[in-house]
Write a structure and sequence with these properties.
- With about 475 residues, this protein is α/β, with parallel strands linked by helices.
- The protein has one domain: Alpha-Beta Complex (Spore Coat Polysaccharide Biosynthesis Protein SpsA, Chain A), CATH 3.90.550.
- It is built from 19 helices and 10 strands.
- The strands form 2 sheets. Strands 3-2-1-4-7-6-10-5 form an 8-stranded mixed β-sheet, sandwiched between helices. A two-stranded antiparallel sheet has the order 8-9.
- Helix 4 packs across helix 5 and helix 12 runs parallel beside helix 13.
Length: about 475
């Protein structure tokens, strides 16, 4: 992600003596204070309140329109069934609807049974290597490294490695500042040129000495108990090969998009991954915070670093790929809700859609990889969970183009019916996210669930079909200054 503060290397080389230790420490404490206030209830800004009110007016208009246009809806329904493609499409979508409903209900049951593993004692905690790859993160990497060093984890069991991946800004300067403050507690490295996040992580894996590897993005802040909570599942479950952390939005008070994403992230992690964890099959350990058993990593390290797609080296989706390869070995992958990391997300539309394109392309690639082993005897325990999750992802990808074509047809033939049914659907399906967030945190922020659904439906619907069509394209997309 882009750095919040970019100051040239020349400025620092000429003025580094004017930056006091107190100022550097003050920055870290301000960041920690911000981290504590992620879900604190605050008055909604006038712009935010206007957006939420407008969202509800649109949904209410949709409900009223559906009620008033019932005859038109019935006529469209009969016309669709009478067409050559209409009845088969209706049968397929009905089957998928009941399948998705079943998956959702089962996931809800799994969520209710989920409990994070409590932290084990200092004596039982394994040795741990933390790898922080950084590229053009500026001062954010300083905040990340100090938050990690401030963790409630035995210092003698912690190895902290920071790797500058050929940054073009002042990232290396801030790594040096962290090294000057932390001394032997952190080791810093500089790649000779920008080679990509996967190569930086690979260097960390090869240098690391810990029993557990932890990867942390360089624009993220961990809470004091995050590390010990993250690695505890490895101690109590020998079948555990990887653990996903709980990612929340750090900059959710600074712009509208992060406010929306904050609610979305809570649903994605605290609901979805909790359910996946009960199946031992979390599909993706996030780059912002994840832990891996050393043996599980080295069993697939050559395959991972040399991974290709359609003959080209893979330079995206390193987190999803590593998770996939660990699942393939028969290990379980778990989620720790009590291992919280706070990370920055894009604040503008361009940065957001680029991030989503990268994620969607990775999803397409890794589902193809997963298809090669998921129906084989890849682990001794039940394989129902990973197979169900795979099919759920597969059907979403397979039906992307049929649904897009139907959407355009619906808009062309009956635009009013499309808009009214869409807003009614958003009201119904987003209510679960809203209630879930309100129950977990606070009511005021939960209403962003509706605004996010409206925003995604009308401005980001094209991500999935575009990502499928361009799944072979390389490039991180959001690694510039």
């Amino acid at each position: 992600m882009e750095s919040e503060t970019i100051i040239s290397e020349q400025f620092y080389s000429n003025n580094s003596s004017t930056i006091s230790k107190q100022a550097l420490n003050g920055s870290f404490f301000r960041t920690n204070e911000k981290a504590k206030q992620i879900h604190v209830k605050r008055p909604t800004s006038p712009i935010g309140l206007t957006i939420i009110i407008a969202t509800f007016l649109l949904m209410i208009a949709g409900v009223c329109s559906v009620f008033l246009l019932q005859d038109e809806f019935e006529q469209f329904h009969f016309e669709r069934i009478a067409s050559t493609w209409g009845l088969p499409f209706l049968i397929i979508t009905t089957i998928l609807f009941f399948y998705q409903t079943g998956v959702f209900l089962y996931s809800s049951y799994l969520y209710l049974r989920y409990k994070p593993i409590e932290s084990v004692s200092d004596e039982l905690l394994p040795t741990c290597t933390i790898i922080v790859p950084a590229y053009n993160e500026g001062k954010l990497v300083w905040d990340t490294l100090l938050s990690l060093a401030d963790s409630d984890y035995p210092a003698e069991k912690l190895q902290l490695l920071a790797i500058d991946d050929g940054s073009k800004d002042d990232t290396w300067y801030w790594m040096e500042q962290a090294k000057a403050k932390l001394g032997d507690r952190v080791t810093i490295f500089q790649q000779p040129k920008n080679q990509g996040k996967r190569q930086a992580l690979y260097r960390g894996f090869k240098l690391g000495t810990g029993e557990i590897f932890v990867t942390v993005d360089s624009d993220s802040i961990v809470k004091k108990d995050t590390l010990r909570n993250l690695v505890s599942p490895f101690v109590v479950n020998e079948k555990c090969g990887a653990v996903a952390g709980n990612v929340q939005v750090l900059n959710n008070k600074s712009a509208i998009l992060p406010k929306m994403l904050n609610v979305s992230f809570v649903m994605s992690f605290e609901f979805q991954r909790s359910a996946e964890s009960q199946l031992g099959s979390v599909l993706c350990t996030p780059g912002a915070l994840a832990a891996y058993k050393r043996d599980a990593v080295f069993n697939c390290l050559p395959e991972w670093i040399n991974q290709t797609f359609m003959g080209e080296p893979s330079d995206i989706g390193e987190d999803r790929a590593l998770t996939n390869m660990i699942l393939k070995q028969g290990f379980e992958v778990r989620f720790q809700r009590n291992a919280v990391v706070l990370t920055n997300v894009p604040e503008e539309y361009k940065g957001l859609y680029k991030m989503f394109i990268r994620w969607a392309r990775s999803n397409v690639r890794e589902n193809l990889m997963m298809a090669k082993y998921v129906f084989k005897d890849f682990r001794k325990e039940s394989k129902f969970g990973p197979r169900m999750l795979f099919l759920n992802q597969f059907f979403k990808i397979a039906m992307t183009y049929p649904f897009i074509l139907f959407m355009f047809y619906f808009i062309a033939v009956h635009p009013i019916l499309f808009l009214s049914s869409t807003f009614l659907g958003i009201l119904i399906f987003s209510s679960f996210s809203m209630i879930f967030y309100a129950k977990r945190y606070n009511l005021a922020e939960s209403f962003w669930a509706y605004s996010y659904s409206v925003f995604y439906t009308f401005s980001l619907f094209w991500i999935a079909p575009y990502a499928i069509a361009t799944a072979n394209k390389k490039g991180w997309l959001t690694r510039g200054l």
